[in-house]
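hey can u check if this looks right to u? its 302 residues, i copy pasted from the old doc so theres a chance i mangled smth
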Amino acid sequence: MLADAVYLFPNASPRIVALSKANQGLGDFISVLDPNFKDKTSLETEVSVEQVASTKPDAVILKNYMADKLGKPLEELGLKVIYLDLETPDKFTRDIATLGQFFQDEARAKQVSAFYQERTDRIAKAVADVKEDQKPRVLILYYNDRDGQVAFNVPPMTYIQTVLAQTAGGRPAWKDAQLGQGWTKVNLEQIAAWDADQIYIVAYTKSSSDVVKQLKADTQWQALRATRQGKLYAFPADYYSWDQADTRWILGLTWLAAKLHPDRFPGLDMEKEITTFYRELYKLDDAAYQKNIKPVLKGDLF
């Protein structure tokens, strides 16, 4: 998520000496953007202060939750540390401005922020007059099968997944649940009890399309109203799922809003939205899109 935000700035690439592994299991996007990717030091996710310091950086960019464990010890060594949050659209805009200052390219930061603001405003305007009782009850579930154990989880109200559901004109079905600070595990009985109008499955280490196909073949999931009515969807992804606090959240928001309120987004061309996103934000032309992005697209896109 940090790397994807940093690479929004064209002058950032030659200044990056090391970055943590950014492959969630669906491929490495940065290798598409950076021709010198193989020359950069690849750090493990659970990296030590010593490993970071050994790359001799002038500055280190971290997610803010890593301040105590990694940030402060690095600061004590005299390193400049920049903290980013990215977890909501507002914080995303603020953090893009911070990166613009750091890379001395505030014009690019404003250009990027305008790209997101224009699209967010368009969606907000389209669903502004939808009455609360007319908003579909939506359930966003994170699927994982770590260690062979299948689990479904819902996000807290502060996470971007919930913000996307609300901004797109939906009502989070899990709103009144006992939620923790992070993802909260829920069982199938609870999922059935929520009886959401629409269910969206996200998966970070495998294809959401494959997961939904598997669920649709499960008799227990076939009993859910959303499944019976054809409203069980695979949240889109390419190298990363579009529901995350990643640059792709604007694609996720656009797609979700059109799913929840198709009558308010007539003629929406998601492929055009995707190609525009990669062209304007990452300078990938149509040929690069066809070669590197389209083959890895997943989810109920088209």
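The longest helix spans residues 106-127.
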